[in-house]
Write a structure and sequence with these properties.
ten-stranded mixed sheet, eight-stranded mixed sheet, 28 helices, alpha+beta, globular
């Protein structure tokens, strides 16, 4: 009880000094809990949607995907004949069954040809209105679609795009463009996370999506009373055989959940990773706080030991303070996490992903994890200062002397740190010289961890050296004030090292990712310049196929020297060694593709692979299967016949564009695949006549005006788009890393604030002998700047080393250009100096306000 009272008294006596550490715990726990609440809420939202929209049993056409996405190389979804519906209705245990047709590859536009697709990446679904939809949606305005001239839309999409009854809508599919007017608006009874839904009557949907009636993509089956979904599935399967995909409502929901869950898990663990970084940085702040508080109470600890307190009691007293800090910070963090989750939901709403606070999910595990993490991390961080406090002898403490083993412990620490750093450097070197990216990535991860820990451990040693260099280069310019700032930073290298290390972690990751991102962009740009000979490429925005009318429009555009079609066909291959591969793809293109994409070969010429009954294979495939020039490979085209193709070229694995592709000509594929089974073009490449690049670019844009689902890009567009995508990803990562940097800044503020308290008498004496308030504040600001710059130098140097090593692994995948983004590195370095200035504002202001006489009298 005495230990608890002492701890409580000390904790609340220094509550102002504990506040910043509590904020660090709060931010870290809040980020963890916010991530868990946000992802749990998203899971709840999708689960409710999947459960509400699935029928008891669903029969899907052969070839349909598990998650309901109707992706097809022909642009049309897989279908089944209407006779299946009759067979299902006659099955025992079926109360009712209804056929439906839908597509997730259609594009919907308004009267101005602006796309009505979600910007969040959610699907646009066009289908026939049916009883299953009516069970899960309410028509809030107008009526359900009746006849070919009517279409209905979901309420969220109508609200976003300001659609009104009577507005004209265009539905673009592989069949063509269908125009209808808005007849109704329907709202989900559960939350729609962001999909755009458009409903036609079933007959019209068949014509628009498939091009003919009498077929369905799915049959929704309702079980009779007393019949379980499992029994109904068994009965339907017995009636239909295994030609079609039959699934219960739970199986459909699980498949959808698995599809969405993979994305949510990536986002969840990425965010938790950044929260972990913030926790790591917070550890330094807490260690520094307790170290300085223990140092300031050295004499008090000596008196406690002198009157009978044991080493364990002193140790326990500091740990109890850490426990109090952890509990308070964690409890506040759990509340902040729920608020953060709500904020993230509002932010996602701005990005077209709708989440309702009605579905807010706070599992009991979330606060439990937050409290456990916050308390454990805080107590562990307080352990080292507590242990150090317990080791101080009573007489040494009464003399204000440190532990006698400090020097020896520092030497041991430096030795361990150098050993770890050397091991990390060796791991990075091994990663850089690895032959395989998968092997190298393991060594890279180990090297990152070891060098990071090594730099943290040898922080005091590095601080002693680097701060002196910075003092000569920067601080000496400010005369005596600069020299005093240098001396203050060097007074306790362990403290300076720990404070700088907190900032180092975040900046090291920033530097590493900047190097990797910049190198990826530079390498891809270099590959584009060296490999792509075509001037333009036409693609569908969502990676779907291009229909024949659009291809014809491209061919009619003036100013073009040639147009090259490019298709992807599903196939399996039987090689000369008698082995049949699992499902592969063969890329079929016009012969001009060999000039449009200059793919390096290790044997033969790629142009020869476009000769009749010829093909190319890639280097790795050739080695694995003993394929050589002149070998014959049996290609079993899906939906067609088997072709015996002669290998005329072997392409290099050292490629980025079309890496691992096998080529043949479209004419060869057409001999073995019926016209109605031949896939549509995956992309179309075009080359302008000499000197007519700008004219041809405008002509292509104009020719595809009637096809808004397709985009024309030249090489400049591609480079800029790649740069923008990498930039957006890095900006998002930098935003998440900002949490760790904020915690590190709090550490600098806390260190300086406690340092001012620690040096109160010294400050009073300096003021008494003539140091002005302005000089005092400048001294503290310079000390803060040198600590921040020290951390920046460590972080940027370490991060660029990690990034350069990661680039060596990227080079194994064909991304060979190393690009150091010096503007970003310099901006971060300069920004670190400003961070130091900002962190010193409050401590410098408080130091300047100290009363000289009271300061001198401080014991």
């Amino acid at each position: 009880m005495t230990v608890l009272k002492t701890s409580m008294r000390n904790f609340f006596a220094h509550k102002g000094r504990m506040a910043l550490s509590a904020v660090a715990v709060l931010l870290s726990v809040g980020f963890v809990c916010g991530t868990l609440v946000f992802t749990d809420t998203m899971n709840t939202t999708f689960d409710k949607l999947f459960q509400a929209t699935a029928s008891d049993v669903t029969v899907s056409a052969d070839g349909s995907s598990d998650n309901g996405q109707t992706v097809s190389r022909t642009g049309k979804p897989p279908v089944m004949p209407a006779s299946v519906l009759g067979r299902v209705r006659g099955t025992r245990g079926v109360e009712s069954a209804e056929g439906t047709v839908f597509s997730t590859t259609a594009t919907v536009v308004d009267a101005g040809k602006d796309k009505l697709s979600p910007s969040s990446g959610a699907p646009t679904i066009v289908g026939g209105w049916n009883r299953n939809d009516a069970r899960t949606m309410d028509i809030t305005s107008g009526t359900a679609p009746k006849g070919p001239n009517q279409v209905m839309v979901d309420a969220d999409t109508a609200g976003k795009h300001h659609l009104r009854l009577g507005d004209e809508i265009g539905v673009i599919t592989a069949v063509g463009t269908h125009h209808a007017r808005l007849s109704g608006i329907a709202a989900f009874r559960v939350t729609n996370p962001g999909a755009a839904l458009f409903y036609l009557d079933t007959r019209t949907a068949q014509q628009v999506i498939v091009g003919r009636t009498g077929v369905y993509t799915d049959v929704n089956v309702t079980a009779a009373k007393g019949v379980t979904d499992a029994r109904l599935k068994k009965n339907v399967t017995a009636a239909l055989g295994h030609t079609y995909k039959v699934r219960t409502a739970k199986e459909v929901a699980d498949a959808n959940r698995k599809s969405v869950g993979s994305f949510l898990n990536v986002m969840k663990y990425a965010m938790l990773g950044f929260a972990g970084i913030a926790f790591l940085v917070g550890i330094f702040l807490i260690i520094n706080t307790f170290s300085m508080l223990v140092a300031q109470r050295t004499r008090e600890i000596g008196l406690m030991r002198a009157i009978g307190s044991s080493r364990k009691q002193v140790n326990r007293s500091v740990l109890v303070e850490g426990l109090l800090l952890g509990v308070i910070g964690s409890v506040l963090g759990v509340g902040a996490g729920i608020g953060l989750a709500v904020g993230l939901m509002k932010l996602m709403g701005q990005m077209d992903m709708h989440l309702s606070t009605d579905d807010l999910t706070v599992a009991w595990t979330t606060p439990a994890i937050g409290l456990l993490l916050g308390v454990v991390v805080t107590v562990l961080a307080a352990y080292l200062p507590a242990r150090r406090a317990g080791k101080v002898s009573p007489m040494a403490a009464l003399r204000d002397a440190g532990a006698p083993t400090d020097a020896r412990a520092g030497a041991v620490r430096a030795g361990i740190g150098l050993l770890l750093t050397a091991a990390g450097a060796w791991s990075l070197s091994t990663a850089a010289t690895a032959d395989r990216a998968t092997t190298g990535s393991v060594w890279l991860g180990l090297g990152v961890v070891l060098t990071l820990i090594g730099f943290v451990v040898i922080g005091p040693l590095l601080a002693a050296g680097l701060v002196r260099v910075l003092g000569v280069a920067v601080l000496r310019v400010f005369g005596p004030v600069g020299r005093m700032a240098e001396r203050n930073a060097l007074r306790n290298p362990r403290r300076t090292g720990a404070t700088g290390a907190a900032l180092m972690i975040g900046l090291a990751l920033v530097a590493c990712l900047s190097v990797v991102g910049s190198s990826v962009v530079a390498s891809a740009t270099d590959q584009l310049d060296r490999t792509v000979g075509a001037d333009f490429i036409v693609e569908e925005d969502q990676g779907q196929v291009i229909d024949a009318p659009a291809v014809e429009a491209v061919k009619r555009a003036p100013g073009l020297a040639r147009v090259t079609e490019y298709k992807v066909l599903d196939a399996s291959l039987t090689t000369p060694d008698g082995r049949t591969t699992s499902r592969k793809t063969v890329n079929a293109a016009d012969p001009a593709y060999a000039r449009d994409v200059r793919t390096k070969t290790v044997a033969g010429r790629l142009a020869d692979a476009y000769a009749p009954d010829s093909m190319s294979v890639f280097e790795g495939f050739a080695k694995d299967h003993g394929v050589r020039l002149g070998s014959t490979v049996a290609v079993h085209f899906k939906g067609g016949r088997t072709a015996e193709l002669t290998v005329r070229a072997i392409t290099s694995d050292d490629a980025v564009i079309d890496k691992g592709a096998m080529y043949a000509s479209i004419a060869t594929a057409a001999r073995y695949v019926p016209a109605d089974r031949m896939p549509l073009d995956q992309s179309v490449l075009a080359t302008a006549k000499d000197g007519q690049e700008k004219t041809a670019y405008r002509a292509l844009k104009s020719a595809l005006h009637e096809f808004p689902q397709y985009t024309v890009r030249d090489q400049t567009d591609y480079k800029q788009e790649l740069k923008d995508q990498i930039g957006q990803l890095l900006n998002m990562i930098y935003g998440l890393l900002a949490l760790a940097i904020i915690v590190a800044v709090l550490g600098v503020v806390n260190t300086l604030a406690l340092s001012v308290v620690e040096r109160t008498r010294e400050i009073g004496l300096m003021r008494a002998i003539g140091l002005s308030r302005r000089q005092l504040r400048r001294m503290i600001r310079l000390e803060s700047v040198v600590i921040a710059v020290f951390g920046a130098l460590l972080g940027l140097g370490l991060g660029m080393g990690w990034g350069a090593t990661a680039h060596e692994l990227l080079a194994l995948e064909g991304l060979t250009v190393l690009d150091i983004p010096w503007p970003t590195i310099i901006a971060v370095f300069v920004g670190s100096a400003f961070v130091g200035l900002f962190a010193a504002l409050v401590p410098a202001f408080r130091a300047g306000r100290l009363n000289v006489l009271n300061a001198i009298a401080t014991d």
